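Crash report, auto-generated. Payload:
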Amino acid sequence: MKNKSFYLILFAFVYASCNVTVLEPESNIASNNFWKSGRHAEMGITGVYQAFYQGATNAPLYIRYLYWGEARADVYDTKNVTQDAGTFSIPLNRINSNSGYVASWAESYTAINRANNVLKFVPLIEDVMLTTARKNEILGEALFLRALNYFYIVRAYGDVPLITEPSVSLDQDFRTPRISKAIVLDTIVADLLRAEKILPVSYNTNPQTRGRATIGAAQALLTSVYLWRKDYQKCADKAKQVIETTSLYQLEPDYATVFLDNSRESIFEIQFDNTTQNNNRFQEFFLPPRFGIQLLAPAEKLTKDAVNGFAANDKRKNVTIGITRTPVFNRANIAYVNKYAGAFGPAGTTSISDANQILLRLADVILMRAEALNELNTNKPEVVALVNRIRDRAFGAGVKPALATSSQSDLRKIILQERYLELVFEGHRWFDLVRTEQVDDVMGAQFPELLDPRKWLFPISAAIINANPNIIQNPGWE
Amino acid sequence: MRKHLSLIGWLCLGCCPGFLPSQAFSRQLASVPRNFHLEEPTNLPGDYKVVAALIKGRITSATGEPLLGVTVLVKGTSTGTSTDADGTFTLTSPENKGTLVVSFIGYTTKEVSFNGPSNLDIPLTEDPKAKAMKEVVVVGYGTQRKRDVTGAVASIKASEIQNIPVPSVEALMQGRAAGVQVNPNSGVPGAGISVRIRGAASISGGNDPLYVVDGVPMKGEFGSAVGQGRNEVSPMADINPNDIESIEILKDASSAAIYGARAANGVVLITTKRGKANKTTVNLNYSTGFQSRPLKYTLLSGNEFKEYYTQAHANVGLTPAVNLSAEGYDTVNTDWQDALFRKAPVSSYDVSFSGGNEKTRFALSVGYFDQEGIIINTGYKRLSSRLNLDHEISKKLRVGASISYTKSETKRIQGDDAGVAVFLRTLIMPPVVPITNENGSYHFSKLGLLNINPFSVAKELKNIAYSNRGIANLYGEYDILKGLKLRVSAGGDLLFLNESYFNNSRVFLAANISANEVNVQDFSWINENVLTYDKSFGDDHKLTFLAGYSQQQTNYTFVRANGSGFAADDIQTINAAAVTTSSSNKTSNGIESLFSRINYSLKDRYLFTANLRRDASSRFPAKRKYATFPSVSAGWRISDEPFMQRFSNLSDLKLRVAIGEVGNQNIGDFRYLGSYTSSNNYLGRTGAAPADIVNPDLSWETTLSYDVGLDLSLFNNRVTFTTDFYLKETRDLLLAVALPVQSGFGSSLQNIGSVENKGMEFSLSTVNLDGALKWNTNFNIAFNRNKITQLNSDDARIIVGASSQFNIGSPPSIGEVGLPLGTLLVYVYDGVYSTAKEIPPSIKAQNMNINAGDVRFKDLNNDGLITEDDRQIFSVQPKFIGGITNNFSYKSFDLNVFGQFVYGNKVYNTTVAGLTGTASAFNQLPIVRNRWQKEGDVTDIPRYAWGDPGGNRKSSTRYLEDGSYFRIKVLSLGYTLPSNLTSRARLNRLRIYATSTNLLTFTKYTGMDPDVNNVGGGSDNPIQAGVDHGSYPSARTFIFGINLGL
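Recovered output after restart:
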């Protein structure tokens, strides 16, 4: 009897046991179990937006937009820079293929890969809870975000690898070479045109409407892409569509209001929020040392030069630049970038700001239309009128003499300068100088190496080239 | 107390096991069959002849235990009997006068004469040869006669490691077995310990061995969830060392292959004490004592510091940012070390009961261990209990259990190196800064980086780990046929860990009261079914066959809650926080295995062992899930060959050869699987994003190992010598390989690269004196050479930057093909520029701030500049490691001296780098008095220069020290009360003892403890090693104890 029971116990152990090696992760989702439902589609698209926050401490993707778009230009102080390393080295134009912060496009491809996943797998989801309309909107959002990210790197690096399929398995070959920037720009345009058709006009809340891809956002981005391609008519037309969407987009009468989150002027801004821990690091970059390390301070040209910088009565000056009143570490009157002050978390929890980062806003679109029309040279009065809309807000109507008709080349300079003052610290200046081929004229005196237009592109990180021998360094940066 | 290393030489010489001639030992074996007593005695009492004598007696072992079944014969007759369970016998001798021949297997046969009826007490002594013959070692899934072992197995016996005031088993293994390198990660009581058997073989797959306690594989490590650097709790500390019967270390693939996929780093088998069938014994052990710091640094006085502070600024044309007098810093002379360090008590209480009868045996123990740390507010307390039970249901069926429960509490300081680095800060705090203000509140220094008060952190910060752990294993064993046995066991290891952290309002200058609460539940269960078949064919062939099936699964749950913005210190739980965040996660893994082993011995001379294990692991993808690990080994007992018989002093000579493969699956769970993680939020919506890319080829790390060994015993086993030569080639290393970033992924875990370890090991045990004064010696030494033989490409370099706390930088470590794991990259220090003219113009051009009095680094590539290319590589690996134990006993006294040594290793002394940096507000060692002060001074200590404009603090050979040491690890003196006294007190045994650990260390190393493994930042990457980044030193301990047997 005893023996029988013993065998019974043994039998129970051996045969009744589950297969211990067949397990599924509980705190992750196995990729073969993902993209099965409408909820997955929503999670997936949110993940693409979240890629804005991804990256190293001093170089998450949203900061790279500023590094690429502006940090090398004449907007940041170079005189009082005490170090030649990391972020400090960018305004000094002392970058090379080892400058991890500016030389890498890694985070862009993180975002692009997430978008590629959405674009590949969401159409395959069969879930009655996911309507065709919503499915299309999600695809539109992914197309917009992919285009946005390609547009940044194609402007920064020129030719880039064009990846439109998701990376799923190590079986794939990732050693893709760079491809002509024209082809990349074609893809961006095609994506945005498709997105424009399937995106919604707005979402159910204002922050969603300003923080997620909409028709307006796609059109504003297209405006910018066309301008970059010097496709002036298309640029002007697309800008017009945005400008005429007055139900959603209007110039704020008060310039300061623009930088409070999600203003009426905002078309697309990256959302930051202290309550959900999605806060930014701008205070370390911009605010005076009381809050951390001031990595980037405004150039003296902006603060002190009334001809090349802000005029004394320009209302934008005090909104754009702050000056410390009380001494900080024995220094008083430190100028700092004031566009991203934001709110601070509850005392003792965090001192990291939550100001949104505006990527596209109406004033930018208005000035882009002005620039395109001026290049077309067919409707000078409208060019002047567009620029005056921006000036009137800055100075008050009639305070500064309104811009009168002048030559095409004068207007070019005026528009560029107006963009500088209106949009400074928002990540446009370097791209503006490159687009208008003014880098050498504006900055060549201070940085002779910029007389070589090859240096207007960014170097590609040595680590990227090491990991993918098919990537060839940009000329001049070898 | 630190002397020159040459003392080691003297010491070794003094302890050298000079063999002394012995009296002739009988090599004769007791040849009476064991079951003799079961047969009818041939001469019954009453069947007497003319004259007869009734002889009674009792036969005991040397320690007084009664011996059952001892054969007692009247010499020259066939009259005889055997003893009963009490050891007593009665026989009637045919002659009135004569001699009894008392023989018992395993004991030296004794002749005792009698004259007339007698009542004799006869103690038998164990026969050394027979003892050697029957000595068994625990091997995977069974035991084996030690003499039949054909793999490389080292044993540590209970007697070697008991009653030493150290909480965990790993620490006790240090120096005891050849080829086992043990480094405490921190001197914090109960902290984790790194163990490397025959060198590190993996870069990212973990290098700790598999621990198996009474058949249950234990979780070998769990990281602390509250960032503690390397202060994580040691999971092995949950085993009370006083419960341990033996530790076996399976070093080569042949012995370890039966553990397959988890055996690449070796296997440590821990066997706890079980009951024996005899009278119940009760043992009480109590010890108490204290611990003290091994060394106190002499540092600059307050006045000297002021001079340094002022001069350092003046030398570079700066005005001090802090006016010392204005801050009241000119009247203070704080001894920060004395404030933080203390003499700390350590106590241990153990009660154990064991006994039973033929049917049921038990061992029950309860222990309490209480060790306070030598830094205030640190310590370790453990309550442990264990019940081991064996019961015979029938002659064929047995059941039993091993059950233990342990509760412990570990009080830690904020990382040695991570977080606030309390210990490092204690050393660098200037003496001019007071600990408290006049009003009793803590003082926070105005001196820049030093505004954290190490005393307030140590004293006020609550940082405790509470662990509750139960381990149980139940078994049933059934003899199916003669020689065929089935053993089924089921066990579990349940760990519940709670880490509780509270940062009160007094800890830091800016009061931000916050709390962390972390709960970890880790449960693993195992079922094993093993069939063993023992069979002898004739006298020449012996066969043991073993086959088994095993399955094990581990489930891990982690819950964390953080709270901040507390209003006051009273409530320390998170319900009182203004802002809370929390998180949890779960993971699991499983392994399923089939295994078998064949032992075959031919004529007891030719021994063969073959192992085969096939594992399936949940950690690998379907096509790589299964792996097979084979091994074969052979032994040749040369000493039993006829042609060896003329060497009469040779007791045993055996040659062993082994080859086999073992694996390492020690990577995270589900790493092969492409996965999405959630919590990627945007605009208040929760997103998901790819976390890992599918690696359909992710597979095991495999170690192929070869071992050739020799076991030699001489002079009737008075001298035993073992040597092993080995080569371990580990391939398919799991490495994070950089992917082209346009994939959207930075890197992925892939099987690339290989590492080689080769070496030799020697151990020697001798019985030097065997008279009234007994002296024996155990010595072991091991040489290991390690190198990386392949990485993802030939010129791939893995450079791991070390952490840099308050500008005290450790050098980076480098991994490259051809280099050993544990290689540092440092500049070569070449003294100090005596005059400004000595500075080469190119160096001056490179750094205008370099002046006379700054450090001259060697320009190795002669390009006129000091760049990263001028760094030289240095291996920190020791040339050899080992230990030596001397046991003496004389009458009732016993003395144990255990020394342990490491030779030829390098330690980068980051601590001293901070204390001689001459560039910041850190206190300095008095050696800076010899600094360069004026043009023409010839010295090797650079000038005082605030902010280090000359770059003197670069990690250089200036701080790369020889870490060789010889340490008197344990010194123990005991006195056992004579038995006539103890028996009068109705005691079995009473021993009192005094023990000291870490009593003396002979080393040239200038830091607190050369025995460190702390690179900073909490890394356990084996590429990084040999850095003393403010490590919490091991304490010196003195205890007194009493051991009572009832």
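Post-recovery validation: The CA atoms of residues 201 and 381 of chain A lie 30 Å apart.
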